[in-house]
What we know:
The longest helix has 16 residues, at 123-138. Helix 6 (123-138) crosses helix 7. A hairpin with a 7-residue loop joins strand 5 (180-185) and strand 6 (193-200). Strands 3-2-4-1-5-6 form a six-stranded mixed sheet. The chain is an alpha/beta fold. It has seven helices and six strands.
Amino acid sequence: MTLERLVLWRHGETSYNLAGRIQGHLDTELTEAGQEQARKAAPVVAEYAPDVLVCSDLRRAQDTAAALTEITGLQPRLDKRLRETHLGEWQGLSGAEVEMGWPGAMLTWRQNPEWAPPGGESRVEVSERAVEVVEELDQQYSGTALLCAHGGLIIGLTAKLLGLPHELWPSLGGVANCHWVVLIRRAGTGRKWVLNAYNAGVQS
């Protein structure tokens, strides 16, 4: 079996997103706006007719995926490998606080996917654990897989699956709350992943 399509769906807005604080592995909840984002996006995401739904075990992803389950009945499989990047000592801090404590480090982290914050993991490391999930699904399904996860992980996983060299990873823009990325396999590409949509979403 081989997957034909992969949909990577970011969770809705959280209180930390709203406050501009770094979450990483912190288990934050959706705001009311985030819950509404999930409800609006779910019918559109459902049109991809996923055969399997795999979700990060962090609450913000689970609560977003629940909006899709309510429509489709598709039950999520939880996988901690889909957690957001562990950002070590930066977790819970604002960007300004990180800059104060580690001048210039935020820019380094954004520009170099091999660099990790103190006590945390790099985006390359995140992509390697996430791609394991995709490879396992590839052996089990032949249609569409939907992963409900986190912005940093989605960027890293997309770059990894597209085979981008590390120096080009920063060229991928961010993925907004409750937006998604779609990768497909086309005939004649040697079963390689091709980007079909990036940061797609529902008009608010």
